[in-house]
């Protein structure tokens, strides 16, 4: 067994350690710290720290470094905000001490934030749903806007159908199957996509609301038959919401009203398409 370090040796190691270290007694009073810690806090004098506890510091910012949190933020002498992970260990003996050391994770957090921002930016610029390959809500909106402008110019009808086909398992596989059926069955002029709630969206140019209702009833029967054959025993439900273009509509209001119609059908557990 190696011989234990003497207090002088331990203090020497603490002083040369490049990581900010703080030593607290069993009452939470600072009994030692190293130069890296005084540099971190901007306190040039050792005596300004030793002998203090969280209670004696009161509202002083240094009290945060003596708290129980696993992370702490601190504005250093360079006026830059740094983020630290706080790690703790106990020494052996009758009067154990707590050694607390602070790992600067500012760069790591900055990189994580940058990656998150990039992912969000990519998501905003992506136009397709990752599961079905159909247009996502942003893609549907961009494709619908010129259709609405055309309806406004020529006073021609346009309808939007929003619907769900729900099962008790295999959700992604079910959505892929429904998406493929939509691609195969609908005419080239129809626009197919998904909204942010993973419901399917059909944009039907030159189609009145009444015609869209009839199409929805037919489509519901066909889709349930196909899905039931593919997933026998699946507990299925399908709800449809339908709306038609009005003179004051924008692409956003048209999609919103169709989604509201779907919500109404779901709430009423109505197998028939709901129209608004």
UniProtKB/TrEMBL annotation:
Family matches, as Pfam families: GGDEF (PF00990)
InterPro entries: Diguanylate_Cyclase, GGDEF_dom, Nucleotide_cyclase, PAS, PAS-like_dom_sf, Rev_trsase/Diguanyl_cyclase
Gene3D superfamilies, A to Z: 3.30.70.270, PAS domain (3.30.450.20)
GGDEF domain boundaries: 156-276
UniProt GO molecular function: diguanylate cyclase activity
CDD domains: GGDEF, PAS
Protein name, as recorded: GGDEF domain-containing protein
Organism: hydrothermal vent metagenome
């Amino acid at each position: 067994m190696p011989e234990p370090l003497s207090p002088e040796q331990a203090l020497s190691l603490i002083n040369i350690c490049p990581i900010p270290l703080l030593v607290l007694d069993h009452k939470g009073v600072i009994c030692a710290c190293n130069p890296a810690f005084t540099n971190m806090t901007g306190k040039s004098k050792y005596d300004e720290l030793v002998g203090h506890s969280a209670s004696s510091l009161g509202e002083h910012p240094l009290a945060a470094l003596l708290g129980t949190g696993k992370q702490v933020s601190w504005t250093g002498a360079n006026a830059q905000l740094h983020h630290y992970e706080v790690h703790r260990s106990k020494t052996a003996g009758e009067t154990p001490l707590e050694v607390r050391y602070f790992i600067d994770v500012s760069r790591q957090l900055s990189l994580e934030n940058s990656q998150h921002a990039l992912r969000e930016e990519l998501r905003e610029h992506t136009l397709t749903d990752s599961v079905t390959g159909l247009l996502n809500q942003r893609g549907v909106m961009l494709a619908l806007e010129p259709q609405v402008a055309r309806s406004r110019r020529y006073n021609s009808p346009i309808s939007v159908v929003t619907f769900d086909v729900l099962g008790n398992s295999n959700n992604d596989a079910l959505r892929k199957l429904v998406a493929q059926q939509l691609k195969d069955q609908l005419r080239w002029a129809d626009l197919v996509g998904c909204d942010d709630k993973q419901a399917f969206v059909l944009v039907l140019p030159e189609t009145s609301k009444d015609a869209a209702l009839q199409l929805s009833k037919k489509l519901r029967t066909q889709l349930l038959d196909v899905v039931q054959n593919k997933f026998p025993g699946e507990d299925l439900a399908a709800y449809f919401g339908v709306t038609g273009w009005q003179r004051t509509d924008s692409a956003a209001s048209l999609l919103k009203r169709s989604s509201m119609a779907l919500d109404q059908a779901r709430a009423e557990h109505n197998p028939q398409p709901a129209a608004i």
